[in-house]
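Consortium newsletter contribution from the modelling node. Members have asked for a concrete example of what our holo predictions look like. Here is one, prepared for the 2-acetamido-2-deoxy-beta-D-glucopyranose complex that several groups have been discussing at recent meetings.
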Amino acid sequence: MANQDQLITEDEAELYDRQIRLWGLDAQKRLRVTKMLLVGLGGLGAEVCKNIVLAGIKSITLMDDQIVTEADFFSQFLITREDVGKNRATASVARVQELNPNVIVTSNETSVTDKEEAFFKQFDIVCLTYCKPETIVKVNTFCHENNIQFFGGDIFGFYGYSFSDLNEHNYVEEKPKKNKGSSGEGPSKKQKVDATETVFIKRTMHFTRFKEALEKKWGGIPEKEMKRVPPVFFMLQVLLKFESVMGRRPKPQSAENDRCKILELKKEVLQSLDVKEDYLKDDFASLVAGELSPVCAIVGGILGQEVIKAASQKNPPHNNFFFYDGEQSVGYVDCVKDS
Ligand SMILES: *[C@@H]1O[C@H](CO)[C@@H](O)[C@H](O)[C@H]1NC(C)=O
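And here is the predicted structure:
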């Protein structure tokens, strides 16, 4: 008898019809056996959650130890005004479940910070949002060692990022088939591309850990190469440092003090990375508090897409950072590896 888990029911085929045509039946089958842990139900977490649940994952565990506050209403669309004071993960469950009754949606109100390695092994994919840098580094290391696909991301006001560590990742890429000209024709004749026929090419990609990417030293890197590195990468480093030192994120209530502290840390961080101070302009420091909902939607859209690519092993993933600069309305994909 066929394994029930492997079969797509008629209902599912109908529900997911459009996306099955987009990414194929095999990809959908892989997605619907994938178990995911999503930490942090802020604005970015809500976007990622919506995208993954609509796509039809097997199960999602929403984890957050924070309480819903007024600030959540700017970007967290899974909760209502009545939820103030409730746990952010648990308050989100009902709306998430409404999006797709086929997905197993649960919440966990405990903190991710003190979880041991064994906890993460029950998941295929772990995605951390709204977490302290130390937590991201620790959980990423567990996941890397256990071949659990890892994603991280956060929003700082106008700016946001996502990070992927898929360790050694195998995937297939679908390409239009190149038809060789029929025999007898000259070798110079161009190959014709037939858009109706495609071939699948197997590929492997290697990823680095978050910690290693952050520790990369930039001294001695040629100017030309340096120009390709988006300044927002160094901005992220400054903001992560702020979180470590202050034990919190920048917030609107202390905007001016935070701005001064951020600029002070900017000097320190750039120096330690061997990056010239003028590489990162100062203006960002007053635009990093809170979570702007359009920024959440863009980064959450990218992150959701990356999770689907990873789970379905279809198409080349972003390796390894995506940055979004909402001030300039520009997104960047960049590979940061300590070589
Ligand atoms: C939350 O996770 C912990 C593991 O650290 C587990 O012991 C607990 O039962 C979980 N709670 C729920 C409600 O699933």
